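Task: fold both queries, return tokens.
Query 1:
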Amino acid sequence: MLRDMFSKALKKYPGLQRFLPLVGAAVIQNKDEFMTGVNQMIKYNSIVGLMIFVFCLQIIKPINDAVAGLKDISEGDGDLTKRLTVSSGDEVGILSQVFNTFIEKLQTMITDISEQVNLLSLNATIEAARAGDAGKQRICHCGQ
């Protein structure tokens, strides 16, 4: 289509023929400048793409580590001695730190409850023993 337009223009204006070498040289020069710009843009975009990739890895790795830690704690026996690794001061690091604090408080509460249950169990055993002794004494007194 472009070739047809040039042919029509040359037929209509035959004097344009003498300017074609100048136009061709300008097109070639502009093509070289254009390709230089394209190559520079490709290099720039490659560098930017690499930077974005590295940046994303720095964001995703701590999140994946936190997820793996949470999964490890939640599965199995629910080991409350395990903690998440706090490797940064960003949001993921703060999340890990707050979660660890929560687990420590939960572990302390469970320890306190366990101690209370043990104390109640001991008291119940002592009371049962006293009741047994009192019952034996009654039986002994009644039989005399």
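Query 1 returned. Query 2:
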Amino acid sequence: MRALVTGGAGFIGSHIVEALLARGDEVHVVDDLSKGKREQVPAAAALHVHDIREPLDTIVRESGAQGIVHLAAQADVRVSVGEPAFDAANVLRLGQDLIYLVSSTGNEIGGYWLQGILGDGYRIHFLRDVYFGSHIDSTLVALRPGLVLCNPACCC
């Protein structure tokens, strides 16, 4: 699988990148290096130094990403409240469709911002009122085209 990991130069992101590489995946890391460190990105991963608040469509298209692990974030909750565009989190890409989990860790405004950044070539589907305070990766996992694993304790 070709995976794109935002925030892949950070502590958690770099461990996810290592795990994906260990299972044989091709990995592209998108990180602006404002908090993450270049040396934490394994040499086998392609690093794109890029701010996720800017358009990602070229990187997504050129990388051929089949899945996106979105870990890029800022750590200050005050910024999240005052600048919701910083929090376009909780996204699962399934081809040209993106499922966006609206929860305490990803507000709806961030989803609309993401739609604006990606443009009309992608569709955002909001998953609302499922539960509070978790990430989409604990809810849905794309296994292959047409097959999604869903955590029944959360929303299925």
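Both queries returned. Flag for query 2: The longest strand covers residues 26-31.
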